[in-house]
């Protein structure tokens, strides 16, 4: 019995469902209301109270990047992490970098105003430049010809950043500055597993527009929220 507790547009949940699908693992998906958390979520993830949660028999695994590693170690078909220890370390490094830097900076650039917006946008561009450098000389994906761990970890860039750019009137994914990232995004979004498992653009747009308005009304700036 495999269950995935998730939230429809969560980048953290999607990377897990993409991994399960790439490996051909059947699972039951349970949608969670993250604004009114269910007793199930609180019981399964009492520490962080967040999705995704993967339930595999008696095992309960939380934290999306930890879940990806659990999936890769449990179902050996279609390996996600590279084979060499150094390449594995590198993939984990960039996944963490993108989460701690680019995700935070691009989100804040979308929600904030004035000097904060300018600084976060500048930082997001610098972050993406580093990721672009990592993609240079690679094949279709970060791991070469097959979609792997780092592609799944960074997949949110392909469907969330364009929405955030629209809503926040910012440009991050400049195809001239970032040709490798642009090509990677295209390959990623065209992959049959990804294409079938992406949140609808209109609803995603509406969700983040509303979130942005709420955050600005509440604290004036997302980094304080
Ligand atoms: N580091 C966590 C982040 C998970 C996360 O932030 N999930 C969000 C949905 S996108 C959530 O459950 N939010 C509920 C909350 O913050 O209370 C992971 O990688 O799994």
How would you sum up this structure, described in words?
This protein is α+β, with helices and mostly antiparallel strands and 225 residues long. The protein has 2 domains: 73 residues, 3-Layer(aba) Sandwich (Glutaredoxin); 140 residues, Glutathione S-transferase Yfyf (Class Pi), Chain A, domain 2, CATH 1.20.1050.10. 59% of the residues lie in helices and 8% in strands. The protein has 10 helices and 4 strands; from the N terminus they run βαβαββαααααααα. A 4-stranded mixed sheet has the order 2-1-3-4, covered by helices on one side. Helix 1 links the parallel strand 1 and strand 2. Helix 1 runs parallel beside helix 3, helix 4 runs antiparallel to helix 5 and helix 7 crosses helix 10. It is globular and about 50 Å long. The termini are far apart. The site of glutathione (GSH) has 11 residues, from helix 3. The site of glutathione has 11 residues, from helix 3.
**Main sheet specs:** 4 strands, mixed
Helix content: 55-70%
CATH architecture of the largest domain: Up-down Bundle
Structural classification = alpha+beta
Q: Please report which band the strand proportion falls in: under 5%, 5-15%, 15-25%, 25-35%, 35-45% or over 45%.
A: 5-15%
Residue windows where pLDDT falls under 50 for at least 5 positions: none
Distance between the termini: 37 Å
Could you say which overall geometry the principal axes of the C-alpha atoms support?
globular
- Total of DSSP H or I helical runs spanning 4+ residues: 10
Ligands present? glutathione
